[in-house]
User: Fold this.
Amino acid sequence: MSQRTPAPTRTRDPKATRDAILQSATREIHTNGFRSAGLDSILAEAGVTKGALYHHFGSKHELGLAVLEESVRRTVLERFLGPLAKSVNPIDTLIAIIDRLRTEVTPEMLVAGCPLNNLAQEMSSVDEEFRSHLAAIFGEWRRGIAKSLRRGQENGTVRADVDADGTATYIVATFEGTAGLAKTTRDLEVIEDCSRGLVGFFESLRPTPAAD
Amino acid sequence: MSQRTPAPTRTRDPKATRDAILQSATREIHTNGFRSAGLDSILAEAGVTKGALYHHFGSKHELGLAVLEESVRRTVLERFLGPLAKSVNPIDTLIAIIDRLRTEVTPEMLVAGCPLNNLAQEMSSVDEEFRSHLAAIFGEWRRGIAKSLRRGQENGTVRADVDADGTATYIVATFEGTAGLAKTTRDLEVIEDCSRGLVGFFESLRPTPAAD
DNA sequence: TGGCTCATACCGACCAGTATGCATGTTTCC
DNA sequence: GGAAACATGCATACTGGTCGGTATGAGCCA
Assistant:
């Protein structure tokens, strides 16, 4: 035994330390935003000190980018593009995603908002490096949806005349707008109203059964 | 002469001073957000000093709320609800508003984003007083659109079976989502795509000419 | 022994807020 | 109507606290 990873030595586990910092930073940034996120809060929750943080990350800025790339990006894209990647009918899948989010949303999620949208609104006009990373993630998201819609057009589950790229952009915008409005109003009915609107829009993308 | 407002004495004009502070604070908050807005920047642009600021406003927090109530709220509601208030066909008016915004958007506006949305995303989960004011403004906005839609239903320009309140919420959410996504991507095509999507949605609210 | 991992203590900058004083208007009273 | 007494409007200088970042050194592993 012990030829590889000689049992998590508990002490002296740099990977675990880094992950702990990244995780608590993700939480802190999600609730307070990047600029208001205090390093002391992050370190207290992670159970380490400044020495550990600045050993693994060069600066708060770098930590924020790591949270964005390694945590937020994974979460958003997995949750959204995962189901779409292996679906034959993108419209059914999109409706299922909306429905799942609509029913599973907790009060805490309502208050905290979408982590990607939060960072985007806070940092885009202030920090160019953040903005470019955020724009890239939105780009992946939009391209993933567009790709799925095009596949639907090929197999006949999506109307052939819809602009896949434009529609994908519209979906992402409406989705984030809903999250943002719900965050401010703290009203679950906002989620309901917007979900209905989105589902109606999705239905309008199906091919008309008349024209076969 | 000089029986009333004895000629703007240039010196000693508290109303003008307050307005100057409010205006530069509006700009600074719009570009940097509330928490990153520096009082020194605001004062430099307004051409006054801290003494003047703290004479007119009790704190930075109070200044921020004044900007929200007296500046942001007026701007947003006037621009959006003004045209709707005196229109007989709300759908035509909504399309006109979208079209006007789409064509008049400047690169600076694209970068800065919607001032209401910016404050909402930044402050909602951090400051309850800000959040309640922001939610109230969104409420006015939504109610204004809903009222206009109901009037359209009465005069036959809007389908009778649409849920006015839910539709108004969906419109506001999509609108702010578009502004937010455009702010991050800095891509005018995002505005185009989402405008097309919204106009298509508006068209779907018209009564079908068949069923008279 | 030398390089990695991290704790402790400290620094300096930034920034909201305050204390103070002066100058300009406004009221009061002779 | 004029001057004293007061209130308003605002500038200057300073303070206190927060917080990101650093310097240093100690334990751990190969």
User: Anything to note?
Assistant: Residues 11-14, 17, 48-56 of chain A lie near DNA strand C (CB under 10 Å from a C1'). DSSP finds ten helices and no strands in chain A. Confidence is low (pLDDT under 50) at residues 1-10 of chain A. Chain A touches chain B through 50 residues (CB under 8 Å).
